[in-house]
Amino acid sequence: MRAPVAFAFVFCLIGCGAQQPQSSQSANAGSAQQVTVVAVESQKLDTTLALPGQISAYEAVDVYPKINGFIESISVDRGSKVRKGDLIIQLSAPEIVAQRAQAEAALHTAEAQLAATRAKLLSDHGTYLHLASAAKTPGVVAGNDLQVAEQAADADSSQVNAAEHNVQATRDALRGVAQLESYLQVRAPFDGVVTQRNLHPGALVGPASGQAGSQPIVRIESVGRVRVVVPVPEAYAAGVQEGQQVMFRVPAYPGRSFEAPIARISHTITQNTRTMQVELDLRNASAQITPGSFANVDWPIHRTYPTLFVPSSAVTTDLQRSFVIRVKQGKAAWVDVQTGVNVNGKTEIFGNVQPGDSVVATATDSIRNGTAVSGQPGPR
Questions:
Q1: Is 21 left (phi over 0), alpha (psi -120 to 50) or beta?
Q2: Are 264 and 211 members of one domain?
Q3: CA-based nearest residue to 65, from 185, 174, 202
């Protein structure tokens, strides 16, 4: 009876040993982490990016006088509209009046001296001609007298030239004083609106570089044409073209959009902000857009070549790097990427990935590099 029992025990051990590998394989298959995967897509970027902008006047100037003086009258105030050439400020400077009177007197003196020297030249030249005519008869005029008369006429001619230069110099001096006197009238440099008025009649004013020019008299800005200044990040500065139409909005008109062309491109990156200054040029005839306003700009971004996109949830970070988790042959692999633009829930990526690669749709650093995973396609 013992032999059959022993045989049955050995048969059971053999049978159990034959079934053990199959059970181990089933356990390993069940340990793979289930994940949802999506395919990396390739497409050309064509979208808009929200950027902040600043609206400024096309022309703006702080008005200082060119010479020191006292404000005698000022005909404008904050909000006044001015035209180019309008007289807006009248100054007074008594020393300029005295300089003009002195310059006029000097001119009259110089002209009198010129007239006297010309008269003497005519007299001496006439004497010379008379002696020269008489000298044709031998013995009538001594040769020395003729020579003295000729030299006197030449000297008078030199004095006339000097007097003419003196007259011209005094005229230039008078013209300079007259130019200074014209600076007592301050006129508008362009069409615009007075946005600030800092001083009033009786105040001592002067050039900005002088002690009396501590602040401008008024500030004038042109509002019929404005600049929309957009600091474009370095990553999106490529492909900017003049004339391209750009949409923007301002807080003063909620729900409304404005359009203006790209007019000026700085073509340089500002070092401290890593942005390129681009200006839109907007005709603002009705002055509805106020300089100094903030603008929300829909900045167009286009790429002439295809780039790769994945769902934004497929990109994660561990505070040291950004990466996607690629699934290949049942293994998870972290792939470092750089991100670009976010478009409709998708993120542009750059790295060692190819179109069609499967990546985890919702990446997390809990899925470690090299982990066994089983990918299931997610909804497109």
A1: alpha
A2: no
A3: 185
Task: Determine contact, residues 90/73, Cβ cutoff 8 Å.
Answer: yes
pTM for the structure as a whole = 0.67
Q: Strand 33-39 relative to strand 373-377: parallel, antiparallel, unpaired? A: parallel
Please give the Cα distance from 160 to 137 (Å, whole number): 32
Q: What is the pLDDT of residue 8?
A: 42
- Parts of the chain with a pLDDT under 70: 1-30, 139-141, 143, 146, 378-380
Q: Are the CB atoms for 323 and 357 separated by under 8 Å?
A: no
Number of domains in the chain: 4
pLDDT value at position 380? Answer: 59
- What does the alpha-carbon distance between residue 192 and residue 329 come to, in Å, rounded to a whole number? 71
Give me the domain span that covers residue 208: 64-88+187-221
Residue 211 sits in the same domain as residue 81: yes
Domain's final residue, options 161, 183, 205: 183
Closest CA to 58 of 260, 323, 271: 260
Clarify whether residues 269 and 153 are in a common domain.
Answer: no
pLDDT at site 254: 93
Cβ neighbour number for residue 321 with a 10 Å cutoff: 11
Residue-wise DSSP of 222-268: --SEEEEEEEEEGGG-TT--TT-EEEEE-TTSTT--EEEEEEEEEEE
pLDDT value of residue 222: 93
Alpha-carbon dihedral angle through residues 270, 273, 275, 281, given to the nearest 10 degrees: -80
Q: Is residue 26 part of a domain?
A: no
Q: What is the pLDDT of residue 258?
A: 95
Q: Fill in the amino acid letter for 34.
A: Q
Q: Does residue 118 belong to any structural domain of this protein?
A: yes
- The pLDDT, as a whole number, for residue 4 is 46
